[in-house]
Amino acid sequence: MSARRVDEALPATRTGEACAQAPLFELQRVDVRYGRVQALSAVDLRVVPGERLALVGANGSGKSTLLRVLNGLAVHTAGQLVRDAASRQAMLFQRPFMLRASALNNVALGLWLGGVPWQAARLQALGALRRVGLLDAAAQNARTLSGGQQQRLALARAWARRPDVLLLDEPTASLDPHAKREVETLMADFAAGHGAGGPAHPVTMVFSSHNLGQVKRLASRVVYLEHGRVMADLPVHDFFHGPLPEAARLFVKGEMV
């Protein structure tokens, strides 16, 4: 089990679920509680390599908490969690934190802290900035960039580390339509493994979104959460065209906020 991190041991016997691919994440009956607030309740989830999984639901449904559990930023209070420790992860937030430094150094510093020599880190950072269309802003203070540019810089920072898994929390929620399209294009390209010097295999992507058009464009699978519980877990076509629990149906129709 050297290639996997086990936070709590899984049962010795398994059900008849498909096990053709070892999961990157496997949650069984996972709870997360913050004081009196039950953020997640009895969540079962299995994510395998190459998936593009969208988390949807109303505000407070548990999407961000679930992403944080997958990334290890939130600790589950009950249940069982397995993560593939060999996979490299990167997480992006709705409002990414920018260092008070140039765009180039915002990317290079992360690589340097990961053990890449400084000059090599700067060269790799330049390639990442070129990949997201920010090469002309390499010397600009990252905090002076527009919201869309900052999100693309955050993607460059993640992509430079050659992740196997991208976790994204509402990555386009605060952006204008043009910036949203730019970020969506990059997300799709990274998930497909496109781009010179990038990962040679598709990147698994788990993202939260309130934009159902975006979910249709980018996701292969949709998980609908309500009050911290998974109420639907379906292929994207079935989610939008098949029967759903009533709350999920209203959410898709835009009748529930």
Structure description:
There is one protein chain. Helices cover 33% and strands 24% of the residues. It has 257 residues and is of the alpha/beta class. The longest helix has 16 residues, at 177-192.
List the helices and strands and how they pair.
Blueprint: E1 5-6, E2 25-34, E3 37-47, E4 52-56, H1 63-71, E5 78-83, E6 89-92, H2 103-113, H3 118-131, H4 147-159, E7 165-169, H5 177-192, E8 204-208, H6 212-218, E9 221-226, E10 229-235, H7 236-241, H8 246-253
Parallel strand pairs: 4-8, 4-9, 6-7, 7-8
Antiparallel strand pairs: 1-5, 2-3, 2-5, 9-10
Annotation, overall tally of beta strands:
10
Distance between the termini: 43 Å
* Rg result: 19 Å
Q: Multimeric state of these chains?
A: single chain
Spans where pLDDT lies below 50 across 5 or more residues: 1-19
Global morphology: globular
Strand content: 15-25%
Q: Helices and strands, in N-to-C order? A: EEEEHEEHHHEHEHEEHH
Question: Strand order of the main beta sheet, please?
Answer: 6-7-8-4-9-10
Mean pLDDT: 88
Please estimate the helix content.
25-40%
Query: Count of helical segments?
Result: 8
Helix/strand class = alpha/beta
Please give the largest β-sheet.
6 strands, mixed
Outline of the structure:
This protein has helices at 63-71, 103-113, 118-131, 147-159, 177-192, 212-218, 236-241, 246-253, and strands at 5-6, 25-34, 37-47, 52-56, 78-83, 89-92, 165-169, 204-208, 221-226, 229-235. By secondary structure, it is of the alpha/beta class. Residues 1-19 have low confidence and may be disordered.
